[in-house]
Amino acid sequence: MSEDNRKFNWPLVGNSHITDYLGKRIIKDEVQGTYIFNGPDNFGKTSLALNFAKILLCENLKDNKRKSPCDLCHSCRQFNSYISGNEGSAVHGDFHLIKKEKNKKNISIEQIRDFIKVLSMSSFLGRYKIGIIKHAETLSSEASNALLKTLEEPRRDVVIILVSNDFENLPGTIASRSQILNFYPVKSSEIYDYLVNEHKILRSKAKHFSRLSLGRPALALKFFEDEEFFEKYKKSADVFLNLKKSGINERISMISDLLNNKKDEKENLRNVSRILEVWQGIMRDLIFIDFSHFNLIQHEIFLEKLEEVKRFYNLRDILNLSHFFKQAQINLQANVNPKLVLEELVIKI
What we know:
The structure is a single chain. By secondary structure, the chain is of the alpha/beta class. The chain folds into two domains: 4-182, Rossmann fold (3-Layer(aba) Sandwich), CATH 3.40.50; 226-348, Zinc Finger, Delta Prime, domain 3. It is built from 15 helices and five strands. It has helices at 16-27, 45-57, 74-84, 109-120, 141-152, 172-175, 188-199, 203-212, 217-225, 227-241, 248-259, 265-290, 303-309, 315-333, 338-348; strands spanning 34-38, 95-98, 129-133, 158-164, 179-182. The protein has a five-stranded parallel sheet, sandwiched between helices. Helix 8 (203-212) crosses helix 9 (217-225) and helix 10 (227-241) crosses helix 12 (265-290).
């Protein structure tokens, strides 16, 4: 990283190729009109997008003696109020963020029209107008077409950042007009250092969280900050680790308890997707145990139970299970009832 680039207070852990690139573009005053921050959830994409916006809007950006964002100027204070207001209760005149509304399948054309209208206004601070679109892969076809018209006639003072975890579902016409920045898994050692040094987390916990996160720094931090979330994660893992000891009726009961009998299908879909991800991670761990690659185990926190459960599965069993998991994911995408998908899976296991 260049000395000039060190002036930016980037919040990202790992993926320095992205912050190096953005830093150089800022310093050379070659910021592009549209960016796509692409990668799985919990990589810090949105946090970086917000920080990038805050830097560009900082009134002390051109002051080489100050770090940026400075957190002192009017713009930075406005931005801090916006973030602490949970992205909505406070306002920054030159910044606008939209995301898929709760219980909606797509980002609507009405949202994009409002987004474009805000960005078309003159800058209050005489600098940039910046917009972020979260869940960009959920843009409706009408919304995508409306956004494309804006991208085809870019303004130098407008920056749009699309945050996506599914690049394949973004229209090629939008991708071709954007600078694509791909986020990759971060080494567990880097996440461990970040948790210990920046958040003063006990080394034993930092070790478990950095392993469990599977290269996703924001997820590792969430394990620490959100105790309820971490308990739900452990409960999901515990259910899988106890399936072989349980009869069919007990397995069905465990699934109902895991989903809390909620009737909201969209919430159940999200929960089942997370559960499948946890269980597939455990299956990988069983393979690593089979080959004595203990240093690669994600769920080291459950090592004793993993070794106990491994007695019920040989390598062929685990590979056969992977087919059941693939079918479960296909069924979810085909809008089969999420609870039924999970129940069918645990019966086969």
